[in-house]
Every structure is written in C-alpha cells, then in structure tokens.
Specification:
Elements (H helix, E strand, L loop, with lengths): L22 E3 H9 L1 H8 L12 H20 L4 H5 L5 E2 L5 H5 L5 E4 L6 E4 L3 E4 L5 E9 L13 H16 L7 E9 L12 E9 L5 H13 L11 H18 L10
Parallel strand pairs: 1-4, 6-7
Antiparallel strand pairs: 2-5, 3-4, 5-6, 7-8
Helix pairs in contact: 1-2
The structure holds iron/sulfur cluster (SF4).
Iron/sulfur cluster binds next to helix 2 and helix 8.
C-alpha cells in the first residue's frame, strides 16, 4: 500500500447514530449516482476507491484561468471571451468567493429533509446586469474536432454544475439555469512545442436542471442508514475482477500444498 492510500478510515464516514452531522461533497453525490455500492463502501464502511494520479497540467490551466478571470473581476469588466459569445455579465464579486472556490470549504447548504450539509466548490460565478448569477466551470482539453457536451462521460460535469446551482440557490441567490463551461483548448497542430502550449478559449453553455438533487439526497440517506451493501453495477468490471480474484486465491489456498505459488 502506498503512502497516499489509507484504509479503512474512520473520519468522514457516515455515523448512523448522528446522521444530522454528516457532510457530503458534490463528488460523493456523483459517486452515489454512478454506483451506490462504491459509495456505501466508501462513506459507510470507510474504504475509498484507489485515487488516480493528479491532473497537474489541467490544474495549472485551471489556476491560470482563475487568475485571468480574477483580473476582470477586480476591474468589474466583462472578459473578451464572454463578449465574443454575447454573454452580458461580469465575474461575480463576493467576500466569501475564495472560500466558495476552495475544495475543503466550498459553498455549503444544509438540506432540510436529510440534515446533510452539502458542499461544492465552483470554479467561477458570473453576474448579469439584473444581479442574477451563472455557474461557470473551467475545463482544459486538446481537441481538433468541435467541442461538445454530448458524451455520456460528460454527464458528471452536468451534475456538478447542477449541484453548484442548487447550493447557490440554497444560499438565497438568484441563479439562472444557464451555466457555462469555459474550455481552454490546446493547439496541437503546431510543428513543435517550443516551450509552451497555445490555448484558445471557447464557451459551451449548458442549461442545468437540479430537480433530481432533493430526491437523490433522500436516497443517499436511505442507502447509508441501511445495513446491507447495495448490489454491484453489472456494467462495471472491477467488482467482477475483485470477486474472481478472491475465488482464485481461495481455491489456491484450499489446494493441498500450502506453499503453492499464487497465480499472479
Ligand atoms: S461495481 Fe464498480 S463502481 Fe460499483 S462497487 Fe463495484 S467496483 Fe465500485
């Protein structure tokens, strides 16, 4: 086990005796939507999925985009790419913005029916002349084909935006359904790197619908309060891998010779 992976953990687990003090990040809501079993094993039993490698290049692009839009926030001006796409708004100024954008604090809202405190950290928020807010998410890519939001795997981004909209509304803000994905698209058609990547910015609008969230939180609570582990998703190969692995290892252990070599 590497130094980066700790199991099982006791912190941040759901405690059935204290359900009202539970904090739930938007990424854990997404994990539940993706697979209730993986969610339960993580949030109730304390065993997280193995983490992936950090997206350091994407994070660098995000950070620089934040700084770029922050310069326009400071001046209360529309960024040129917003003008190019006809978006009449400026980056929103608020005293709590830095906390809202920090992944460990985020925008927080306590859901009345479950008592869960839900939180999430949007990349940016824009404000139109009527004082209405739009949620903004930065993305980095490198594609020559037209950018779109039509792939199945992008549903997670859409849910992400919808949770941020729901959180801001919970805080009493007037939030429009239309949010924006600001894409930094790296140009890979050049002859050489020459020590830098060239990006162009494109904006993809998305009309969010956060009506699924209340019901999902209630389902999450039922799942966490139950003592039975949800079934595995038949489309996911990892559980099958795990089961087959356990089977072959136990068969090997049951064999006559205790010193028999494992199959891998
Ligand atoms: S089916 Fe896949 S996603 Fe679900 S618990 Fe198993 S490994 Fe996790």
């Amino acid at each position: 086990m590497s130094q980066y992976y700790r199991v099982p953990r006791t912190k941040y687990k759901f405690n059935p005796k204290k359900p009202e003090s539970f904090e739930l990040s938007r990424s854990k809501i997404d994990l539940f939507v993706e697979c209730p079993r993986c969610f339960y094993v993580d949030m109730r039993l304390g065993v997280k999925r193995v983490p992936g490698y950090p997206f350091t290049l994407n994070n660098a692009v995000d950070e620089l985009m934040k700084r770029e839009f922050d310069a326009y926030r400071e001046k209360k001006e529309t960024h040129p790419v917003m003008e190019e796409y006809g978006i009449d708004a400026v980056p929103f100024q608020h005293k709590d913005l830095e906390d809202w954008r920090h992944p460990f604090t985020g925008i927080r809202y306590t859901h009345e029916e479950t008592g869960f405190t839900v939180y999430g950290a949007p990349d940016d928020i824009w404000e139109n002349p009527k004082g209405k807010l739009a949620v903004v998410d930065y993305k980095a890519t490198s594609k020559q084909e037209k950018l779109s939001l039509s792939a199945d795997w992008q549903d997670t981004w859409k849910r992400q935006m919808e949770v941020y909209q729901w959180l801001l509304r919970g805080q009493g803000f007037d939030v429009v359904d239309r949010g924006y994905f600001v894409y930094a698209n790296a140009d890979k058609s050049l002859a050489a790197l020459d020590g830098k990547l060239n990006f162009n910015l494109q904006i993809l609008p998305y009309d969010g619908d956060s009506s699924w969230i209340d019901e999902t939180l209630v389902d999450i609570k039922k799942c966490l309060e139950s003592d039975s582990v949800p079934k595995a998703d038949s489309e996911c190969d990892y559980c099958t891998y795990r089961e087959v692995t356990e089977e072959v290892i136990s068969e090997t252990k049951d064999a006559d010779s205790p010193d028999q070599e494992l199959p891998f």
